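Chapter summary example: a protein plus citrulline.
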Amino acid sequence: MSIIYQSKHKITLFPRGVSTSSHSDKKNIIVRPPPKSFANALTTSQFTNGEKPDYQLAVKQHNEYVETFKKLGLNVIVLESEEEYPDCCFVEDQALIVDNHVFFPIPGAPSRRGEQKSIIQTITPYMKSIHWCKEPGKIDGGDVVRVGDKFYIGKSKRSNNEGISQFQDFLTKLNFESYIVNVPDYSLHLTTLCSSPNSNLLLIPESCKNDLKFQNLPTSVEIVTIPDDETYGCNTIGIDNKVIISEGYPTVKKKLIEKGLEIIELPMSEFRAVDGSLTCLSLFYQ
Ligand code: CIR
């Protein structure tokens, strides 16, 4: 198995609102640094001005991300980069872990399917049950947002009805409600547009207030809208009273401070260049 680093098991804080995990089930975090081939990662950007991502800077930014979780007391498991998979740092897409039950999706991008092998090897020993997506289903972890104890699943270019329905069956067996949200064409994943920094908040861009239909949100949840030019900043990771946000999104910062949350800002420019956000870089389990 290709684990290159594992921090001391010192756990005091619990992240929440990241993809599929609740605040109480995140003790271990799996990450994978970008490979040297990172500049070839999939992207919707055109790079007309020679703005391809810079590998060295991406490694530096990834390192800051990892150090943040170590400082917060999580057990950090760092997998080896895989050169043949330029997108391999975006581990969120490769597994859907809910209360230590895992659903392994068939990732929507065929070029990314081989990234899953090492994730399967790493996670499987710790899971209570293992479930597999079957063809013709496809779904990316980046299309799943947990808000409190309800799950919202993005129907996107990467996640189709068959994949979503298989994942919903998995959630039903675990007694969770789930709802489909149509992801607008201009966006890669549901997590590209929103996040739940704690179980009472949902951050979305203003223009998505009408586009993204979150049915039956828990009554305690407040929707916080952010100007469209800060859409990228809507992807956050909440940890107890702290929230990790991307650097350069002043309204996101201000509104979360107003909610009494403490902010940790991280530079994300190189991951943003290839459509990756904060949550895409991690997988959590108990
Ligand atoms: C991709 O297109 O698959 C990667 N370049 C970005 C994946 C981002 N992952 C995520 O939002 N969960």
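Key point: The domain at 3-285 is CATH 3.75.10.10 (L-arginine/glycine Amidinotransferase; Chain A).
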